[in-house]
Design goal:
By secondary structure, the chain is mostly helical. The protein contains 16 helices and three strands. The two termini are 19 Å apart.
């Protein structure tokens, strides 16, 4: 929402809604104490989260009016932000999760504000006590303390964003309202301050292997000959599977195996359920388990750290390929309008995912059969799967299976055909 739209919004009170935060001190002096201001902002955020769209601006106007941002107002906003973000992280959300939710529901000002709120939250913790996933996500978001400690953050942030005091406080309430709406999730990574040094580093995918895979993919994507692309991409998939199989055997001989971890993959609309099916088949092919949070559009993946990396890399590549193939199929001049319909495109993606799952399963079976130690490999893989299943069940004791409808036969047929030409390699995830 742009600044001009902020200035045009009505302050009309929603019918039947709760009393606005501005009425908390009706007939009295505005709250000057920072804790009172924080409580007022959080009360307005609660109203906004419950559907009172005018609550944010009404509260901001009542607090700031035509006056500049005072240190008390800035400190109150700081207290409110840290109180709620602390609870959100305790409820299982990670920095990237908060960013993805904000990207889907807030404007660029609120996204920037939440990034600073996250940076403030992490600042007191020693780097050694912050989990590596947290550190990687903070770096990716550029969540750093850029403002001067000599003055309150809110004033410096508002000046940087060219916002008036009312606009800045409105943004604060809107950002807090989103945080209030976020449901409790499973705690898949330790909170800052609680991460413990591990006896050995997590088994990330060897960078040399990834480099070779990316090289094969680059050649596959640049060639104009489908057969050559198929050969190159199949080689990339074989290389990844062989590496994973060899690592499983090595882990079986170590006294400190790499225990299953978890990550989240966010999916963009439209056709989120069909895209989730694609993530699921990639997950299964790489010895992991997945669960889909349809209300928010993300999947939680449980598995070994190296396998999680492969799932993210391969999923990113296949989602791009699937979308490109779907659009190209729907834009063919000789095709009817049906090929551009939502039912066709959803069916296309479901079929694409199903066929990809079949190809990945076949590639895995072939690689395992070629292993020089295949007799020992099968029980080791079974033991590995038990550990992943136990970790998954401990996080998600109650899971419901859910199917995906296929509303268009043409889309199904074309999706399977496109999947036969997909590159089964991996590349780095696309960053938004």
């Amino acid at each position: 929402m742009g600044k001009q739209n902020r200035r045009k919004r009505s302050g009309r009170r929603p019918e039947g809604g709760p009393s606005s935060s501005s009425e908390f001190w009706s007939g009295q002096q505005r709250p000057a104490d920072a804790e009172q201001i924080a409580n007022t902002l959080m009360a307005a955020a609660m109203e906004s989260a419950q559907g009172a769209s005018a609550a944010a601006e009404r509260c901001a106007t009542a607090l700031a009016g035509r006056d500049p941002l005072t240190p008390q107002l800035a400190h109150g906003a700081h207290l409110a932000g840290q109180h709620i973000i602390s609870r959100i992280f305790q409820n299982g959300w990670l920095p990237e999760d908060v960013h993805q939710a904000a990207r889907r529901h807030l404007d660029e000002y609120a996204i920037a504000l939440l990034t600073d709120v996250i940076a403030t939250y992490v600042q007191p913790f020693a780097a050694a006590s912050v989990d590596e996933t947290w550190r990687a996500q903070l770096n990716e978001l550029d969540a750093v303390v850029w403002w001067s400690p000599s003055a309150p953050h809110l004033g410096q942030w508002a000046a940087k964003q060219l916002l008036t005091p009312v606009e800045a406080l409105t943004t604060v309430v809107q950002a807090l309202a989103l945080l209030i709406r976020l449901p409790r999730l499973e705690l898949i990574r330790p909170l800052p301050g609680t991460a413990q040094p591990t006896p050995s580093a997590h088994h990330h995918v060897d960078e040399k292997i990834l480099s070779r895979v990316r090289g094969l993919l680059a050649k596959a994507e640049s060639t104009s000959f489908p057969e050559e692309a198929e050969t190159l991409s199949a080689k990339a998939q074989e290389l990844m599977t062989k590496y994973a199989v060899d690592r499983v055997l090595v882990d079986a001989d170590t006294s400190v195996p790499d225990l299953p971890g978890a990550c989240r993959i966010w999916l963009d609309t439209p056709y989120v359920d069909a895209k989730a099916l694609l993530v699921d088949v990639v997950t299964k092919a790489n010895r992991c388990r997945a669960i889909f949070a349809s209300a928010w559009g993300f999947m939680t993946i449980v598995g070994d750290e190296g396998d999680l990396e492969v799932v993210e890399l391969l999923t990113t590549s296949l989602l791009v390929q699937a979308t490109r193939a779907m659009i190209a199929s729907g834009n063919q001049a000789q095709r009817s309008a049906d090929s551009r319909s939502r039912s066709y495109r959803k069916s296309f993606l479901v079929a694409y995912a199903t066929r990809i799952g079949e190809r990945l399963a076949a590639a895995n079976e072939s690689t395992i059969a070629k292993s020089i130690d295949s007799a020992r490999l099968l029980p080791v893989l079974a033991s590995h799967q038990v550990k992943v299943d136990e970790a998954f069940d401990s996080l998600f004791p109650e899971v419901r299976n859910r199917g995906v409808s296929i509303p268009n036969a043409n889309g199904w047929d074309d999706g399977r055909a496109a999947a036969d030409n997909a590159e089964l390699g991996a590349r780095r995830p696309l960053r938004k």
